[in-house]
Each structure stands twice: as C-alpha cells, then as structure tokens.
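Let us work through a complete example step by step.
Step 1: write down the sequence.
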Amino acid sequence: MTKTIFSLSILLTVASALSAQDCHCSDEFQFLVRYMEKNYAGFRDKGTGENRFSYDSVTADIATRAALVRKPGFCVALMKEWLSFFRDRHNYITAASANADQPASANTTGADPVEVIRLTPQTLSLLRALRKGVEGIYHTSDSTYTIAIIQNKTADRDYAGVIVTSKAPTWKRGQVKLELQRMDATHFMACGYLRDHSIDPEIFPFDGRSFGDGVWIRDGTPAARAPGGRSRPAPATHGRSPAVQQQWQTIQARRLSDKTYYVGIGTFDESNAWPVDSLFHADSAILASVPNLILDLRGNDGGSDFVYSPLLPWLYSGPVTVAGIDVLATDDNVKGWTALLEAKDIPEANKVTLRRIIAQMQSMPGQRVEIYHEDTVRLPEIRPFPQKIVVLIDGDCASSAEQFLLGAMQSRKVTLMGQHTAGILDYANVRDVALPCLPFILHYATTRSQGVDAGKGIDNVGIKPQVVLGADQDWVEEARRYLEK
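Step 2: predict the structure and record it as tokens.
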C-alpha cells in the first residue's frame, strides 16, 4: 500500500489558493466551552463530578489542536468533535446562512477560493482499482458527484476529495470538494463544500466502504437500504436528509382498505402545525369509524409538542403520565426563550405559557427551574375508533416525536412497530447563539427531563418497538396485516 500511495502522489500537480482567516480558532473554541459550561442544561450531569477528568482531558486536547487549525471548516469540525463528548444530538452547529432566508455563499461562510488538483488518467485508473484503505473513487448516493479521494497532506488535512464528475454546474473536474483529517482508524474530521462552495464541516465515520454512513460511497459498493425497503438518502449535516425532508414536508393520508387508514407525518415542526390540524379535522369522520389506523412517523425528528396535539384524542385510552421538565435559568437562556415570542408559527396560547416560563427563569437566575410538574393527563372521553393503532418508528424519530411516543405507548390501542428511535429527548428545548467571529450558529439544549433522575432517560438508548421490522420488509404492509389479522 505504501508503494501505491507513493505512486499516486508523484502523479499529482497542485494549484492551491489559500486565504488568511481573520478568525482565530482558539478564540472561537474558548467561547464555545465557556458558553456551554454556563448554559447547557446537561453540563452538570456530563461535565462535572466523576466525568470531570474525562471532560477536562478532551477539552485540553481539542484546545491544543484548535491552536494549530488554519481553515474555518476544520475549526468547526473540531468544535463538533468537542460537542460529541456530551453525546447529545440536541447540541450542534450549523452555518449561519442555514438559519436565514437566503442560501449560503462562499463569502458568507468563510470558504477559501476553490482549490484545484489535476489528476492524470493514470492516477484515476490506479484509484479505481483500490478496494481497501481510504484512497479510491467515491460517489454520492444519487450520483450527482464522483470524487477521487487521495492522500494530500497539508497543515489541516490528510486527504483531499477531488471532483471527477459533477452534474452540478457549480463544480468542475479537478476542484477539491472534500478535505479529510484522520482522528482515529474509523473517524475523520471532514470539511466538505456544498453546491455553492459554502463550508459543511462534519465528523465522518469510515467503514471501508463509505464515509459518513453513506454520504460518500466507494465505487462498486451497493447503496445502503433504509428500513421498509426504501433507499436511504445521504444524511444531511443535522436531522433529515433533503430527500426525506422534501418527501415528508406535509402529512400524507390514504385508505389502505375498508378496515385500515394510513397517516404519515414526517415532522412536528411548527410549520406543519396547520396541515396536521387540518387533516385530523377534515378526516374526523373517517377516523371516527375506521377500525385501524397506521401512523407513520419514520424520519420525524421532532419539532414542537403542540403540533401533535390533534392526534392525542384518537390515541387516548386512559390517564397518561408525563415527566416534569426543568430549565436552566441563565441570562443567555432567558434571551433565547424570549426570542420565541417573535416566532410567527407559535400560537398565541402557547406564547402565554412562554411568558410564564420566562418570568420564572428571571426570578431564579442560575438555577434549574421547574417549568412543568410531572402530571397525569386525563381527557374527557375515550373514542371508540380507531380501535387499534400501529405507530411506525425508526432510528430517525427524535426529540418531540419521542415525547409523543412516550405518551402514545401508554395507550392500550397502540402498538409500536419498526426500529428503536434515536434517543434524543432528555435534554431539549434547543436555543441558539452566533459564534463570535465564524459565521456559524451554536444550537444547544436548555431543559432537562426529570425522568433522568427517575432512571427513565432515553438519550442514546431510544424507545424500542414492540414489534421489530427489518429492512427487507414493507413496513406499511406489515402493519396492515398485523392490524387486520
């Protein structure tokens, strides 16, 4: 393998233009550390006490590496690596433009001018023959891009991913679309560049066949399949992939038979509140007479609890216990919660609750404040139909979707089918803050479930289905058969 790498390296000609960065990674990292220690609701559980030595070791190691980083993408990747210590996917970083109305551009995300590496036909022929190691030819799941990953060490990277073919007009042959820095045998810091050349930093696992669980697939390797027989799209930086997001932007509903009705809801985002409410109102006559309901929540990574409230009366079969929630009442968190009052998608009734929470936080600075007591919810009636309900779940169900499931699984009507959920709920109610210099946004959890102290936390464990389904099965058909047997 050493001879192969050497052979490839002498066949390359490089044209690179690197611009100096005004932001200092050490300063950005220290801001992140101080901010999370003060404001993250899970820090006392995960960064103190018996975890303190491990936390300090990780922090010191990344601080040392941050001092050597030159490119903003790798700086953000380092910060993501540090956030991963907490094992809480409610803590993440996105490009600032991802939170605005306009798409990102190279000028707004700190991307350097596009680097070009010329690959000879002989080099590409050698790369196509490789089936082991990092180097080789890779493509995206939709074949929009094909890149050659080559060993090309600089101060920031160990490998470069160079465009071989591109269906996107913004990327040309020879341009560097991906940079990789090895963390260990199976993980890399990845600095990718999007269609508009803006930075998309991430931590990529590598299994010998693909980077990032199928983001980049080695040529000759079959694409992964999602549960239920669907092709699994390449994951995005956070949450659903663009393909899944487009597919599930609004809810779907249809009759599968005279006994079974199907509803799919791909998100509990505030923007989906009106479609959810409208469908359950418009189809109330059907729901009030159909024996069976399939509720498909695959890919639903949450949003806001009030979005799923129209579903609850149809699932209800008796009192439902809901865990209490505490919020960390810092000045920064008060500002984050107060900003929600400007959101157009949040109903005014919910803003009344928000104002109560904000007032509680302001009265108890620096403390964990109980904003919801553990409660037992009772509805006025148990509706006779639907009689049996299957909820389809998978590893992409998270956050508010899992909160919904914790209540739904207490119903005698409900059976959970599929795969276990993501396990991202114990620390929630995400707020955000801009990094001081780099054009990126830190998102972090401000609340903590009281279920953690009761030993009922689900983070990194998830909610298990009562009936497990495999990737080779048609999940909707399996659910229909289960209900109608």
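Step 3: interpret the result. DSSP finds 14 helices and 23 strands in the chain.
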